[in-house]
Amino acid sequence: MPSQTDTEPAIRFDNVEKRFGDNVVLHDLNFSVAKGDRVTLIGPSGSGKTTILRLVMTLEEANNGYIYVDGEPLTHEERGGKRVELKEKHKNEVRKRIGMVFQQFNLFPNMTVMENLIEAPVHVLKMSKADAIEKAKGLLEKVGLSDKENAHPLELSGGQQQRVAVARALAMDPEILLLDEVTSALDPEIVGEVLNILRDVAKETDITMLIVTHEMQFARDVSNRVLMFDGGKIVEESDPETMFTSPKEQRTRDFLSAVLGNN
């Protein structure tokens, strides 16, 4: 018989609500991401897409509802009809399965590239330093930065920093990779080098990916599902081909027309 985690989705949102003051950013959100799926969230700025990633990464906490990772509650569970917060130790264990690449790189500026890559594997996963370095060297080769292991982040271009950030996320062997507008802080001519590396990750691994991007061609290339968000709700969802060639909802058509420059 398959175990619970074999049959459960990688991520599941169950009636999740998120407010910032009086502003309700997510309304009773229900959706799931199956294991190995590549799901892209599109929609206008302020529609709640990045908040979803921050909730999964536990950088924000939902005001109501539940989030599950591999069938396990992430921050809260229901006990006796009440929503109860789980201990930090539990949250940390579940969070180990999740990697995130941020818009603004978020590298440690006082550490070398190598130190950035081995910090979490050594201290969180308890990997030996030698094994962590060996793994990091392989990842730096993969992202084309083998010659930068002793550089500090501020000595690197934005594109190089973001490639290091991708390698750092992969160094934790995540089951789930969250990508938050990973090219929006980059000069247009170097966007492609970062996206190509992520295309390779999608092609060569079975990592579940939840992606927020305005790069529609990238969304089309790597996703097997696209969700259109507006006002904290899912307006439409479909496979990429349908979403980008014949969306059903007028709101989706208007958004894609604006983003893609169609008449």
Automatic annotation (TrEMBL):
SUPFAM superfamilies: P-loop containing nucleoside triphosphate hydrolases. Keywords: Amino-acid transport, ATP-binding, Cell membrane, Membrane, Nucleotide-binding, Transport. It is a peripheral membrane protein. The keyword Ion transport does not apply. InterPro entries: AAA+_ATPase (IPR003593), ABC_ATPase_HisP-typ (IPR030679), ABC_transporter-like_ATP-bd (IPR003439), ABC_transporter-like_CS (IPR017871), Ectoine_EhuA (IPR014343), MetN_ABC_transporter-like (IPR050086), P-loop_NTPase (IPR027417). PANTHER family: AMINO ACID IMPORT ATP-BINDING PROTEIN, GLUTAMATE_ASPARTATE IMPORT ATP-BINDING PROTEIN GLTL. Belongs to the ABC transporter superfamily. This is Ectoine/hydroxyectoine ABC transporter ATP-binding protein EhuA. The gene is ehuA.
